[in-house]
Design goal:
The chain is mainly beta. About 10% of the residues lie in helices and about 60% in strands. The protein has an 8-stranded antiparallel β-barrel. The relative contact order is 0.17.
Length: about 240
């Protein structure tokens, strides 16, 4: 639907003799803001329309703009297991939190009628947190529970149930280029391609089990992603 709307708008735009003064008001102007929603037809996770981060641009002039991306999210899952009589035997809770902040600059090097081409760069940080708590009823005696018949709780901080779900702090550098097409005054659709280099350092994690000494991770994992990749996406935005 977006591509069809773009095609119709492009045809209409080129059908005009010359987009004189009317089209001058379509593009960005000094002191204007814009916000947008991403549409990624190449997404493999089923999230076609996404607003992973609040993205805002401020046009200092028609040619120069600064951009801000602020992302955050929290996922919480609870689960319970019961025996055939309906008596609860196990319960668990997992949490995952995400925060990201990106600051960047855009240079709009070509503006013709409804079209606006730009390029720029940005710096960003990312913080990911995980935690997992599981409680189960232990009927049999153990080393730390000689009497048995007791609820035992295992709590992870800094990682999830899966050992690969590690909390981390990351830093990234992005370069990008893109184009906006103004369908109507203030309303635009566009495409953007970016490449990113990122670093990531895993945080420490701690494990606590009822009546047992706590365990703290001793590993020091650091990751550097030097492989550049392109992530195409279409954008729908509004300049106001």
């Amino acid at each position: 639907m977006l591509l069809a709307a773009c095609a119709v708008s492009v045809s209409t735009a080129f059908a005009q003799d010359k987009c004189k003064d009317a089209c001058k008001a379509f593009g960005p102007e000094d002191g204007k803001f814009s916000t947008e929603l991403s549409f990624n037809p190449f997404d493999q996770n089923g999230h076609t329309f996404e607003l992973e981060a609040l993205r805002v641009r401020y046009f200092i002039t028609k040619k120069h703009a600064v951009r801000l991306g602020l992302g955050f999210g929290l996922t919480k899952d609870n689960a319970e297991e019961s025996d055939v009589n309906g008596t609860k035997e196990k319960e668990s809770e997992s949490k995952a939190g995400h925060f990201s902040l990106d600051l960047g600059y855009e240079y709009h090097f070509l503006q013709r009628g409804r079209f606006d081409l730009f390029a720029g760069a940005s710096l960003g940080i990312t913080k990911q947190n995980y935690s997992y708590t599981e409680s189960h009823y232990e009927p049999n005696p153990t080393q730390y529970n000689p009497q048995g018949k007791k609820w035992v709780t295992t709590e992870y901080t800094g990682r999830g149930k899966n050992a690969d779900d590690r909390a981390y702090f990351g830093f990234n550098v992005n370069i990008f280029t893109g184009a906006d097409f103004y369908v109507y005054k203030g309303l635009f659709i566009g495409a953007e391609f970016g490449m990113k280099v990122s670093t990531q350092k895993d945080s420490e994690w701690e494990k606590k089990v009822t009546d047992q000494p706590s365990i703290t991770s001793t590993d020091d994992n650091k990751k550097v992603n030097l492989k550049l990749y392109a992530m195409p996406s279409f954008r729908i935005g509004w300049t106001f």
